[in-house]
């Protein structure tokens, strides 16, 4: 919202402070000022000047060579306008005048002739659309006067208010509110811009009546009728004021109502009196299936939550949002009804949202305006109409329906409470003075304050003690509060074990396995799920997605990982990344109303040209992680069926923890790799963090180190090609549980010396005893045990 | 001429259909349609024909070309698919092996900057006795708005555009949602913090992201005051920046606190003298905070006449952007390794 310091200046004398100082003070105590804008400040570099001579340009037909007298000097200017002659008084922009960032007047040569400035048209000055020629002032205009004095109305400074920061302050949605703040903050006097007593002196000659049918829809509806209206252009001061507030000047009546809205903060509306049917205006909820066409030409089907202003013929305005086309003020209008009202903020907000019509009026009404300001707004409007349209005459005084007059907020508080909340030793008198300056009435007795808030702060804004704390704090200045450590019991915080587990996982993956953590959106799309062939339509959808690419919540981290592989392979031949995050299951609701959220960690190893299958890389990391996390009962089980379609059926393992599914390690299915145009091989692990967190962990318990010699024994076992070597190792390990301490595969041979469907697995076995050195006979016995176990299961040695 | 063409078509289709190897398909394509292919040769002789004949034959040969190409594509597709059906066996590996891996060079691993900074802040706050809490990302309207003193149709809803889910819930727009969950669980006095992912219904550009991270902090006790808030915030920021930081409070409106503040900290680039980063003000706008609104305390079953508290919420992305000079917020969620490996 724009605040014009010119308008502020009519209510509080700010001639001795800079706009910057005002902005700073407001920002620190009232609302955030996002910027200061100087309007038409370049007018100070443009002067009235008299054309001494106007000759044709020696080298161009359409240009003239002029000498202008600025009162101080004579300047040569080449001018292209068609409408000037010697003796004219014109607006002369000196060299250096900065119209805007792009347009700065420079000394130049035009067709070989020097030109030291520019004569301006009204359009160039931003004062009208007239560009038919340069502006010629009346003959008796003094020369050498800056335009900032000639067009004083158009020179203004405006502050850009962050609307969010005044959401809770309905009183600040008009200049009057800011004027009151500035007066209070800077110790100045506030002059009310209107005297509403003028309304009581008017004799009623019109029978207009207003009636609120549903008091919950509108706390107050005030109106008056004015005749002898002549619609026309507004005077300069009004046009410029309206413009500097970011609105377009339209006509005197529209501009006046807009101006009063900006000044008093009360949105106004004018109806053409003669278009109204009957003498009664009613305010009510719309009837079912009622319709209205608003000023912008749009037609709306109303619901019983919309509030309408109606005459005998039906709705004439969509209350608080926009007037109706059927009662619109036009050029021929001679009699108007002025309206100032307040409405239920919730209804206004709903209506404005539903019709996508967040008008200036709706924005204010939804903040809960004080019903007390309607009379001031009417009086101010009437005052301006009389000033601008001579002959205009009120034919009613205040026509008002105000069923339940608003009460002022009353709050009892102690100065001690304020001090304790702020944490600073404030003086009682300073507190009282501050509140009084903000127009609060304060009765005090030994630190007990009985406070009555002004009506304009009494709607929603000031309702409780802590609101008073804020008033005192913000005006006395938060920057004067000294930091102080709180006195608390010295107890350690309860540790969030899941969070530290999560952190352990990330630290192991990055620290031990050199992976890089990435973070992806919680969203996925139908396309993505289809490409991965995992679209079962089970995802929780968004009602208002930003795009179809992000329209549902993920049930898996795999889509992100796949996308990130596709993306990063452009820049790296090999990489390892993981994401730890939540997935969302709508079919597995935790409590009655929320979807369950599970934590997973998924990582990938991508290699352009792996020498051994990349599967083993991912497996090494996943298994290493489980070990590091000291998961006690986990199993890696070869998996060939009931795999997700993106997993390679010959290169996958399931992870089971305590018999529960804890995740999957797999090489990406070649078809998926093809779909996503992988340029290398990728293997992925995808683990359920909740299962891992809840799993039993290996306690740290010392096992005696091996004291007696370890005896290695190597054998090569012939097996079918598709035998899992782990099966062979298990047979070996089982053959003597006490004295075989290790069995591992050293190498696997396939080739000419073996039948085509066979392979040879070389295994290193370690024999050792915890009690003594093994005797040769025992070693012999163990070797036999191993071999016979293998033979029993159909394996031969090579 | 036409006969010749038909013969080529027959021949070509036979070759294609009898092919069994995926790699062959492209060779076949060259042999028939390539620059010296069977069909191409025929077309070369078109020049010698009468214009009428040239027209019909030209048309015919284009039809045939299309038929052959379709057949090639279909075969390719078929072979690709049947190739995949065999992989369970043809590409079988003994997954139970544990061969030596990663002979290649590995640079050290990298935590995502959001994790790193989140952990730093968690550690600072934990050292001051704050307990880390957690809450759902898909939240109810009650915890995200209503309990935080933002009823339906309150204008403050404009401040946070919201993703709504099909079940009538929403994606939390701020970590403040955890305040109420925390209060329900704890008995005062307490100090809690809640880091996490939040969502706003907002189109992305260099300075806007619909998914970002916040850290929420809350302290409730007897006579907790604004001066305590300032103290804690200065300690937290000094901890983050590892040098002394001054903070200042301005009025700010957040419905769940009263009074509410915008907190600025002294610009670390210029030390408060004014520079481009702080827009010549000497201060950098950083977070929203305030004394907990009595209604918020009540929603958490805490008696506001007995207890008071402060709460704050800071954006992690913006903090990291400021620290590291990042000009585009979209990097955080891009999955780009080149970004993460700079931290």
Give a brief description.
The complex is a heterodimer of chains A (798) and B (343). Chain A is α+β, with helices and mostly antiparallel strands.
Task: Please provide a written account of the structure.
The complex is a heterodimer of chains A (798) and B (343). Helix content of chain A is 25%, strand content 28%. Chain A is of the alpha+beta class. Chain A has six domains: 2-40 and 156-186, Phenylalanyl-tRNA Synthetase, Chain B, domain 1 (2-Layer Sandwich); 41-150, OB fold (Dihydrolipoamide Acetyltransferase, E2P) (Beta Barrel), CATH 2.40.50.140; 196-401, Phenylalanyl-tRNA Synthetase, Chain B, domain 3, CATH 3.50.40.10; 410-477, Phenylalanyl-tRNA Synthetase, Chain B, domain 1, CATH 3.30.56.10; 497-694, Bira Bifunctional Protein, Domain 2 (BirA Bifunctional Protein, domain 2), CATH 3.30.930; 711-797, 2-Layer Sandwich (Alpha-Beta Plaits), CATH 3.30.70.380. Chain A has a seven-stranded mixed beta sheet with strand order 27-30-31-35-34-33-32, with helices on both faces. In chain A, strand 32 (634-638) and strand 33 form a beta hairpin. The radius of gyration of chain A is 42 Å and the shape is elongated. Chain B has 343 residues and is of the alpha+beta class. Chain B folds into two domains: 2-88; 113-340, Bira Bifunctional Protein, Domain 2 (BirA Bifunctional Protein, domain 2, 2-Layer Sandwich). In chain B, 40% of the residues lie in helices and 17% in strands. Chain B is built from eleven helices and nine strands. Chain B has helices at 2-18, 24-33, 38-44, 51-90, 113-127, 141-144, 177-185, 226-241, 294-299, 316-324, 337-340, and strands at residues 131-132, 138-139, 170-171, 190-199, 211-221, 247-251, 257-266, 283-292, 308-315.
């Amino acid at each position: 919202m724009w605040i014009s310091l010119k308008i502020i200046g009519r209510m509080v004398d700010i001639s001795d402070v800079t706009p910057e100082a005002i902005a700073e003070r407001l920002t620190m105590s009232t609302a955030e000022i996002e910027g200061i804008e100087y309007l038409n400040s370049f007018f100070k570099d443009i002067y009235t000047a008299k054309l001494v001579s106007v000759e044709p340009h020696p080298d161009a037909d359409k240009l003239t060579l002029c000498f202008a007298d600025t009162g101080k000097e004579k300047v040569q200017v080449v001018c292209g306008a068609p409408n000037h002659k010697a003796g004219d008084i014109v607006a002369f922009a000196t060299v250096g005048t900065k119209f805007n960032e792009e347009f700065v007047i420079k000394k130049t040569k035009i067709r070989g002739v020097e030109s030291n400035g520019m004569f301006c048209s009204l359009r160039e000055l931003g004062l009208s659309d007239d560009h038919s020629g340069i502006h010629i002032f009346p003959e008796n205009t003094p020369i050498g006067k800056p335009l900032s004095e000639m067009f004083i109305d158009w020179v203004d400074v405006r502050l850009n208010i962050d609307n969010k920061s005044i959401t809770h302050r309905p009183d600040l949605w008009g200049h009057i509110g800011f004027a009151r703040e500035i007066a209070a903050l800077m110790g100045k006097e506030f002059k009310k811009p209107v005297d509403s007593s003028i309304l009581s002196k008017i004799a009623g000659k019109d029978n207009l009546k207003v009636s609120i049918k549903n008091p919950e829809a509108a706390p107050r509806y005030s109106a008056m009728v004015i005749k002898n209206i002549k619609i026309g252009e507004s005077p300069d001061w009004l046009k410029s004021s309206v413009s500097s507030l970011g609105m377009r000047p339209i006509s005197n009546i529209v501009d006046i109502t807009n101006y009063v809205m900006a000044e008093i903060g009360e949105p106004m509306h004018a109806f053409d009196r003669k278009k109204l049917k009957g003498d009664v205006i009613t305010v009510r909820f719309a009837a079912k299936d009622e319709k209205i066409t608003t000023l912008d030409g749009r037609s709306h089907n109303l619901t019983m939550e919309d509030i309408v202003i109606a005459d005998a013929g039906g709705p004439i305005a969509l209350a608080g949002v926009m007037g109706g086309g059927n009662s619109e003020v036009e050029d021929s209008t001679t009699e108007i009804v002025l309206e100032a009202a307040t409405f239920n903020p919730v209804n206004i907000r709903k209506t404005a949202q539903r019709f996508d019509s967040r008008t200036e009026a709706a924005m204010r009404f939804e903040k809960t305006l004080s019903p007390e300001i309607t009379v001031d707004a009417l009086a101010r409007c009437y005052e301006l109409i009389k000033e601008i349209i001579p002959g205009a005459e009120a034919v009613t005084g205040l026509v008002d329906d105000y069923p339940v007059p608003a009460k002022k907020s009353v709050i009892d508080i102690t100065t001690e409470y304020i001090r304790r909340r702020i944490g600073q030793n404030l003086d009682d008198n300073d507190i009282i003075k501050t509140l009084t300056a903000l127009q609060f009435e304060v009765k005090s007795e030994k630190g007990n304050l009985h406070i009555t808030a002004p009506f304009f702060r009494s709607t929603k804004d000031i309702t409780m003690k802590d609101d008073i704390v804020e008033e005192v704090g913000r005006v006395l200045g938060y920057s004067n509060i000294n930091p102080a450590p709180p006195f608390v019991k010295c107890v350690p915080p309860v540790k969030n074990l899941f969070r530290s587990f999560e952190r352990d996982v990330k630290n192991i993956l990055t620290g031990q396995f050199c992976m890089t953590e990435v973070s992806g959106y919680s969203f996925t799309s139908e396309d993505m799920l289809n490409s991965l062939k995992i679209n079962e339509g089970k995802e929780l959808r968004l009602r208002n997605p930003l795009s179809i690419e992000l329209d549902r919540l993920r049930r898996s981290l795999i889509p992100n990982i796949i996308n990130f592989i596709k993306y990063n392979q452009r820049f790296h031949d090999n990489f390892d990344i993981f994401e730890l995050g939540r997935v969302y299951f709508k079919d597995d609701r935790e409590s009655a109303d929320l979807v369950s959220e599970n934590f997973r960690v998924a990582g990938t190893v991508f290699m352009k040209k792996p020498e051994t299958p990349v599967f083993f890389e991912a497996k090494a990391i996943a298994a290493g992680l489980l070990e590091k996390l000291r998961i006690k009962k986990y199993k890696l089980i070869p998996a060939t069926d009931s795999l997700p379609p993106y997993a390679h059926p010959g290169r996958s393992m399931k992870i089971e923890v305590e018999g529960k599914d804890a995740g999957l390690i797999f090489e990406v299915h070649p078809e998926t790799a093809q779909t996503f145009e992988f340029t290398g091989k990728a293997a992925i692990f995808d683990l359920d963090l909740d299962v891992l967190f809840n799993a039993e962990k290996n306690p740290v318990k010392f096992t005696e180190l091996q004291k007696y010699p370890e005896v290695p024994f190597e054998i090569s076992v012939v097996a079918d090609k598709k035998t899992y070597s782990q099966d062979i190792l298990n047979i070996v390990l089982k053959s003597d549980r006490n004295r075989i301490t290790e069995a591992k595969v050293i190498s696997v041979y396939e080739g000419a010396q073996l039948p085509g469907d066979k392979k040879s697995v070389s295994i290193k076995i370690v024999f050792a005893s915890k009690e003594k050195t093994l005797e040769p006979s025992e070693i012999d016995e163990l070797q036999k045990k191993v071999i016979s176990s293998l033979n029993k299961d159909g394996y031969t040695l090579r | 001429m036409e006969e010749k063409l038909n013969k080529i078509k027959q021949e070509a289709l036979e070759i294609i259909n009898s092919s069994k190897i995926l790699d062959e398909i492209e060779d076949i394509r060259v042999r028939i349609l390539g620059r010296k292919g069977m069909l191409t040769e025929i077309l070369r002789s078109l020049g010698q024909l009468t214009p009428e004949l040239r027209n019909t034959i030209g048309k015919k040969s284009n039809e045939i070309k299309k038929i052959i190409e379709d057949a090639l594509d279909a075969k390719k597709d078929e072979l690709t698919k049947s190739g995949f059906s065999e992989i369970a066996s043809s590409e079988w590996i003994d997954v139970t092996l544990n061969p030596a891996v990663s002979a290649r060079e590995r640079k050290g691993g990298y935590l995502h900057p959001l994790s790193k900074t989140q952990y730093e802040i968690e550690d600072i706050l934990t050292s001051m006795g704050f307990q880390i809490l957690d809450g759902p990302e898909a939240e109810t309207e009650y915890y995200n708005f209503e309990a935080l003193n933002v009823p339906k149709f309150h204008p403050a809803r404009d401040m946070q555009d919201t993703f709504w889910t099909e079940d009538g819930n929403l994606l939390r727009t701020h970590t403040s949602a955890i305040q109420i969950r925390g209060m329900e669980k704890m008995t005062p006095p307490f100090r809690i913090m809640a880091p996490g992912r939040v969502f706003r219904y907002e189109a992305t550009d260099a300075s806007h992201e619909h998914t970002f991270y916040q850290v929420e902090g809350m302290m409730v006790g007897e006579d907790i005051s604004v001066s305590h808030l300032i103290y804690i915030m200065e300690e937290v920021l000094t901890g983050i920046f590892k040098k002394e930081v001054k903070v200042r409070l301005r009025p700010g409106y957040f419905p769940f606190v009263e009074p509410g503040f915008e907190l600025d900290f002294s610009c670390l680039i210029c030390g408060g003298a004014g520079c481009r980063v702080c827009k010549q003000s000497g201060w950098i706008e950083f977070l929203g905070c305030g004394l907990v609104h009595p209604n918020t305390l009540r929603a958490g079953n805490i008696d506001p006449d007995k207890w008071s508290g402060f709460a704050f919420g800071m954006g992690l992305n913006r903090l990291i952007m400021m620290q590291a000079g990042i000009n585009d917020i979209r990097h955080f969620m891009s999955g780009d390794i080149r970004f993460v490996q700079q931290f």
